[in-house]
Amino acid sequence: MTHTTPKILISACLLGQPVRYDGRGKPLSHPAIDRWRQEHRLVTICPEMAGGMPVPRPPAEIENGASGFDVLEGRARVLEVTGGDVTAQFIAGAERALAFARANGCTYALLIDGSPSCGSVAIYNGSFSGVKHAGNGVTAALFEKAGIAVFSPADIDRLAALTS
Predict the structure, then answer these.
(1) What is the tens place of the pLDDT at every residue in 5-23?
(2) Are strands 106-110 and 149-151 parallel, antiparallel or unpaired?
């Protein structure tokens, strides 16, 4: 491996770290993750924790069926089920995650789907009813704007093919 081999930023929860809102991890088992670990290509972060959020924390969703792009453009907020506005923490976490990804030479990101931070295919619609819609979270949107290719766990085989 040379120093120019691209690194992959990965959601900390996908490596089993207990950083999710409910204090749990959501480990993703795949041969590519094992290979990337051996190659020292994984860079781990939880954008929500990077934004100063505690574990555990109330569930949060982007309001009114909006997306991470809407949050970044100031057209939507990230709200907790309790009604608390955590938009600033989500934006700060996304910005810190992007700075961390750039500092570590990441050109790809493997982010948990469904999350108001990391979702890249589908996110919850803001009603706290378990309903998802196509869209992305704040961190995924910022990464896409910055040119970092974002993949969900469902796309890991495609990412693995690109990085072999």
Answers:
(1) 889 999 999 999 999 999 9
(2) parallel
